[in-house]
Amino acid sequence: MVGVKKKEIRIGMVGYQFMGKAHSHAYRDLPFYFDNPLKPVLKAISGRNEEAVKEAQKKMGWESYETDWRALIKRDDIDVIDIVTPNHTHAEIAIAAAEAGKHIITEKPLALNVEDAKRMLTAVRKNGVKHMICHNYRFVPAVQYAKQLIDEGRLGKIYHYRGSYLQDFIIDPNFPLIWRLQKEISGSGALGDIGAHSIDLARFLIGEFKEIVSTMDTFIKERPIGEMTGGLSAKGNSEEMGEVTVDDATSFLARFENGALGNFEATRFAAGNRNKNKFEINGEKGSIRWDMENMNNLEVYFTDDEEGVQGFRMINCTEEVHPYVGAYWPAGHIIGYEHTFIHLMDEFLRGIAGDYQPSPNFEDGVKNQILLEAIEQSAKDKKWIEIGS
Ligand code: SOE
Fold it and tell me: Do 264 and 254 meet the contact criterion of CB atoms below 8 Å apart?
């Protein structure tokens, strides 16, 4: 309603690099496109390097900064803590934020291991705060539309799920040993960084995993010690070498609770594939496929299409009927990567305002982490593993 001032929700963000930029942009653009009951206020950003955090504060439009996340959490002018730091810090920050009564949104994977992930879930439940994990690809309009088609039964019984996430940013052996390649900071490699997204998409689209078997490898075992950035374009700056302690590539097979068979691949060694996150789902009445590199399009095939004109057809998911896109441009005017974060934040703030728990949340994060751990274990033991809850 014109003239009615919206209730503000005050955000405090820990971290400010790649994901910090994506989240900051989402909070800023959200009110421009969506009529969310809450108006995000970029209250404070935190980081240990004062120069860098000050620079980020100015550039991304935050009101103030802190150099210690503990100080951020103590502030009573902050309602939400947004965690965009490397993975090994998620648990400590999230648990402290929950205990301080803040709502929490964190980057994926939830933690380094299942034990920490479960402690995080316990903390948010005990303190009654809302929580979310940033599996942003769920919020691509074409992916949301695929989910609608599947839920309406347009594919019938599901037989196959094929999910792959292919990147190539570390294929050069001189690419440095960034934190994403160190197990004690990242938990795992391609598996937890990008395979986690494929796992989340599969769970979102067709349901829970029943069992898995996997194999993984580290092709380049040592790399130059680099800058401590997560940057996908980091440069080596030393003769000194350090050990890569995570997987470069992981493949796994799965069976789902609904009887479908799954085939998954996560790799950072697929030359030419910059960010190819894709899936194909085959059911008794048709198939659906999607690829992040053409994120607005969904390809569908239905067995009951007329003979002679059967074949995959491409839907450009930019029409009013497609989720989220009506808020932007006329049909055919596409949206991009950054918009997935706007949709995710919109859902998060609606959950806080409407007092419901949005998804994907820490419960999804724990289920994802159980799979990540099982996949690593299976590769070690060379055996199928049942997925518990
Ligand atoms: C790097 O591999 C990365 O930024 C991931 O960390 C993100 O989760 C993925 O969306 C894009 O690639």
Answer: yes
Q: Give the β-pairing of 286-291 and 209-217.
A: unpaired
Please report, for the chain, the start and end positions of each structural domain, with discontinuous segments joined by +: 7-136, 140-360+365-381
Give residues with Cβ within 8 angstroms of 151, minimum separation 6: none
**Side chain identity at 172, as an amino acid letter?**
D
Residue 332's region, left for phi above 0, alpha for psi from -120 to 50, else beta, is left
Task: Note whether 82 and 14 are within 8 A (CB).
Answer: yes
Q: Which CATH class is domain 7-136?
A: alpha beta
Q: How far is the CA of 1 from the centre of ligand 1 (A)?
A: 38
Least confident of 1-15, 143-157, 279-293, 325-339: 1-15
* Gap between the Cα atoms of 169 and 321, Å rounded: 36
Nearest atom of ligand 1 to the alpha carbon of 167: 2
Torsion of CA 147, 206, 118, 125, to 10 degrees: 40
* Domains 7-136 and 140-360+365-381 in one fold: no
| Residue 263: both structure tokens together | 């085939």
Binning pLDDT at 50, 70 and 90, where does residue 235 land?
confident
Count of helix runs (H) and strand runs (E) in the chain: 11, 17
Share of the chain above pLDDT 90, in %: 94
Ligand 1 centre to CA of 302 (Å) is 33
Q: How far is the CA of 194 from the centre of ligand 1 (A)?
A: 6
**Ligand 1 pocket mutation, candidates 164, 201, 275, criterion most atoms within 8 A of CB:** 275
- Does domain 140-360+365-381 correspond to CATH entry 3.40.50.11290? no
User: Is residue 194 within 6 Å of ligand 1 at its C-beta?
Assistant: yes
ipTM over 0.90: yes
